[in-house]
Amino acid sequence: MTNLRWKLLAIVVVISLSVWAFTPPSQKVRLGLDLKGGVHLVLRVNTDDALRIETETTADRLRESLTSKAVTGATVTVSSPTDFKAEGIAPGQDAAFRDAANEVQVNFDRQSGVGGAYSFVMKPNIVIQLRNEAVTQALQTIERRVNDLGVAEPIVAPYGSAGNQILVELPGVSDVNRAKEIIRNTALLELKLVVEGPSPSREALLASRNGVVPPDMEAVPGSESVPQGERAGTAFYLVRRVPVVTGRDLRTARPTVDENNRPAVSFSLTQDGASKFGTATGQNIGRSLAIILDGRVQSAPRIEGRITDEGRISGNFTQQEVADLSLVLRSGALPASLTYLEQRVVGPSLGADSIRAGILASLTGLTLVAVFMLVYYKAAGINAIVTVSLNLVILLGFMAYLGAVMTLPGIAGFVLTIGMGVDSNVLIFERIREELATAKGVKAAVAAGFDRVFLTILDTHIASLIAAGFLFQFGTGPIRGFATTLTFGLLSNVFTSVFVSRTLFEAILARRQVARLSI
Amino acid sequence: MQILKAPHYNFIKWRWHALALSAVVILTGVGLMIARGGLPLGVDFSGGTIVIVKFSQPVPEDIVRNAIEVIPGDKVVQQYGEPADNAVMIRLPQIQQAEQGANLEEGANRVVTALQDAKVPKFEVLSTEIVGPVIGRELQLKGIYATLTSIVAITLYIAVRFRPSFAIGAIAATFHDIFVTLAFLSFFGYELSLNIVAAILTMTGYSVNDTIVIFDRVRENLRTMRRDSLEQVVNTAVNQTLSRTIITAGVTFLAVAALFLFGGEVLHGFAFTMLVGIVSGTYSTVFIAAAIAIMLSHRKAAARVAAVKTPASATPAPPPSGSRSKARNARAS
After folding, report:
1. What was the ipTM of the complex prediction?
2. Last residue of a domain, one of B131, B149, B175
């Protein structure tokens, strides 16, 4: 086969591959949120929460350790997410205190102050490590929840330069508020032994202890109100601080009904959790166990006998709430609270409108350009139309094959590619006209035109590619779609305007001696 | 068909007039921006809430305004898209959300509730955009950074491929285009949105295309037109590529005009920016980039000539454009 035939074959192969890649369009072309409709969220992980949990846990452990070593009179208080201090240590107990502290203070630097006081500051590298872990864990938890929501092709990814932001995109979702609640729900489940309660108010609860909460207990509000006399108030419980089991010990959770046929959540525990649960329930028959969700007591059933592996959370739930709660418990608790920073919702009708408008604009643009090229460059205009159309086909094929997302600005990129594609053709044709004027003969003029112009085309495309690169970095979502379309459009343009166009010319000029070129 | 047969306009002669015109446009734009207190920032950059609502029948904007009267702050109610769409855009300013508890979507929810309470005709929420202050600020910085680094990168590329003085010319033309575009955005009351900044970024690459084509021709002509002054070489190059410049600009303008007219409201600002950019880009390439390249080359050449003796082989006939010293300057550069 001649050189020319190989070239034509190569072009046909490329076209076929492209067309195969994007048909059928409804399945193979990924649409962005602005064309499909959906929700775009940016949230921030409040990593301070995770630090505080670590600090409070360490402080708790220090208290327990001090009690077990009979160091009395010392108070341990948490002063910030990363600091806590211990005060009131008698001089004679200093050694015992240090023993206790050494056991628990792995992640903290200890400094001694005046009058038997010590301050503990979290080590800087631990702070960084915990922050990163919190973000990673939040990312994974959110991902599990989003997957459980049943959204097709969701995106959950780190975002931004601050290191604590997460991007969530949910195509096709219209109930924004439910999605946000499910994502944001901290879902911290704790089962704690009840010491006293329920009481209608915090003061009533602590009345017998002079309003002081003992260090190994805490007062927790309930989620329902308890009538006392004529007034109804939020119920308060006094519970042991250290939980019997937490959400970490859950194996799974699913919706069910309680003994009154109201919606409830049934959960089962891991082996570890089951043994802890069994011990605690076995030793505390007759007491109540508070089921605490995000710091509020949902219910506090009496322990009738030793239970090991299953439990039930009942309360004032609707069926939807029970389903959502099970979902959230299954995914695990969030290590820190989340704040929403940005929210964009595109309804499906706007998405469909945008697609229509984009296609209309592209076709109109293509037609206008085609008409002009035919009028101005006559038969050579056909060459230009073919190359520009081919350019779009290859562009679409590229994007479909790589799974790149098509957005509305991406369609604008299509239109721009039409314009820039024509630019290359114009450069070449004008040059060919010039060369023809020097009486070189048609074939030589065409060859000279392409040769001289190749470097210029390369230069202009590289400059635009640089801009597209920065655009990709700067933008997210729709703008990235535009940068992608622009980049691939430019790349395929170099191919079509130089290689394909030239091959077409050669094919036409191959057979006969052409005296005049219609250009 | 050919629109310009062998054009021979003296662009370089008009460069000062062109620069003056550009200065007028840019200064007016800057003045307008200062008078209005800066360029209006869209929700993407200033933070805030936008709710786009489509009614089933025509509803006057005032009814919508009255309905959302209860919500505090400077609200903006505007027609969205064509009148036949019956769509309205409602914008709420940024609410200070100091604590975590404050709800991001509170504004949007209140708008929907207020509209429902006011018993306006049936409506559908087409889209909402809510941007918190943190993101808004981040995007501002990101946008400026991206634009500047893009310009720097492209300029470096030109400096390497051609010569540094050309690169300065290109950078001047690009900044000119950006300021002219901002001026026009200000004239026509557009706000800076993500799409518009994307269009501006695209322009940095696109407006340089024309410049590269002309500089390419200049480089080629410098090899063959050794006896002519740089001004002549550049002028010739501009004229040689004039057809191509006008046609390309025209065709791309046609394509983007299709986008402006039919592409829908979302892309309106983007298309407008590109249209201004195409026109300004062509204008700036022809008059400004070339002019600055010449000015810088002259200064360098003059410095060099001062240190070099005049060559012995003088040209037999004086070059068409000017004096002998200009020819020597051209050769020395």
Report:
1. 0.76
2. B131
